[in-house]
Automatic annotation (TrEMBL):
InterPro entries: 6-PTP_synth/QueD, 6-PTP_synth/QueD_sf, PTPS_Cys_AS, PTPS_His_AS. Its cofactor is Zn(2+). Pathway: Cofactor biosynthesis; tetrahydrobiopterin biosynthesis; tetrahydrobiopterin from 7,8-dihydroneopterin triphosphate: step 1/3. GO terms for biological process: tetrahydrobiopterin biosynthetic process. CDD domains: PTPS. PROSITE patterns: PTPS_1 (PS00987), PTPS_2 (PS00988). This is 6-pyruvoyl tetrahydrobiopterin synthase. One of its GO terms (cellular component) is mitochondrion. One of its GO terms (molecular function) is 6-pyruvoyltetrahydropterin synthase activity.
């Protein structure tokens, strides 16, 4: 294969944001919430330093040698992740979470949807959200079909 032939690479960049939240479902009683979420249901909430890494599989441009300009990706991530989420109370400061439980799974969906609005169509492969070193959610935009 010649150096100018199309090659695919997966590009990722990581950001870390700090936010607090309370795991609490309006569909459950206070007792059910406490049983399900335990100490994470604390009425005053608790915080995390979330690490987010979106992955973009793209063709390496034969002229620039890049998949995407990292400065552009940094700007998209600033707008989609850092501005709405960093140093926020997810449940009170982010309208999306007023009706959606602020689990890491739903944080990953929020970030996916936010990035999808900014990135060129169809280039987001996955979003990885690390709530802690032990707790990681990977979301690839999959949806289930409601029957």
């Amino acid at each position: 294969m010649s150096p100018r032939s199309a090659r695919l690479a997966r590009l990722s960049r990581s950001v870390t944001f700090s936010a607090c939240h309370r795991l609490h479902s309006k569909s459950l009683s206070d007792e059910e919430n406490l049983k399900l979420f335990g100490k994470c249901n604390n009425p005053n909430g608790h915080g995390h330093n979330y690490k987010v890494s979106p992955v973009l599989p793209l063709q390496i441009d034969p002229v620039s040698g890049m998949v995407m300009n990292l400065t552009d990706l940094k700007g998209y991530m600033q707008e989609a992740i850092m501005e709405p989420l960093d140093h926020k109370n997810l449940d009170k400061d982010v309208p999306y979470f007023s009706e959606v439980v602020s689990t890491t799974e739903n944080v990953a969906v929020f970030i996916w949807d936010s990035l999808q609005k900014l990135l060129p169509q169809g280039i987001l492969y996955k979003v990885e959200v690390r709530e802690t070193e032990q707790n990681v959610v990977v979301y690839k935009g999959e949806q289930t079909i409601v029957k």
